[in-house]
Design goal:
The protein is an alpha+beta fold and about 150 residues long. It has a single domain, classed as Heat Shock Protein 90, CATH 3.30.565.10. Helix content is about 30%, strand content about 30%. The protein contains three helices and six strands. It has helices at about 30-40, 45-65, 115-120; strands at about 5-10, 15-25, 75-85, 85-95, 125-130, 135-140. Strands 1-2-3-4-6-5 form a six-stranded antiparallel sheet. Helix 1 packs antiparallel against helix 2. The chain is globular. The N and C termini lie far apart (about 40 Å). The model is unreliable at about 1-5, about 105-110 and about 145-149 (pLDDT under 50).
Length: about 150
């Protein structure tokens, strides 16, 4: 598969899954963000959900680069699917020394807000420890703790 080009599993355009393997470099976050946004926009996902998914994938990929190691092939795997305008994003890496969790709030820290941002946008998120690495996933576009309907 060409780097940055999503592979699909068939099915209706709204429910197709996409998977991209991208080299484990600091440039990974902006590149995957563009790919995700283009794909979701082409599927007519609402703009607010696209924006939330863009922020979430950026934070998850940046965390993978900052805190983990690459998969055995030197890449990060990013997978997403859409169902009823809910987007679930997964970022898989080679794992790291610590378990991903939101950092406590601080006023002056230059970083450490990534998973707090993910938690505020996603209606669900979690971490899967796997034999060859770790996957952090998040779902956006569904019922949210911060929205009132």
């Amino acid at each position: 598969m060409h780097e940055g080009t999503p592979s699909t599993n068939g099915g209706s355009p709204q429910s197709e899954k996409r998977t991209v393997r991208i080299p484990w470099t600091p440039a990974a976050a902006p590149r995957i963000r563009r790919t995700l946004v283009e794909d979701l926009a082409s599927r007519k996902v609402p703009g607010e959900v696209v924006e939330e998914a863009e922020i979430v994938v950026s934070e998850l990929v940046a965390n993978a680069i900052r805190h983990a190691k690459p998969l055995a092939d030197g890449a990060i795997r990013v997978h997403w699917k859409v169902k009823n305008n809910v987007v679930e994003v997964e970022v898989s890496d080679g794992g790291g020394p610590s378990i991903p969790r939101p950092a406590p709030p601080t006023t002056w820290a230059p970083g450490g807000r990534g998973l707090r941002i993910v938690r505020s946008l996603a209606h669900e998120w979690g971490v899967l420890e796997e034999p060859n690495g770790r996957t952090v996933w998040a779902s956006v576009g569904g019922p949210s703790r911060r929205r009132t309907h």
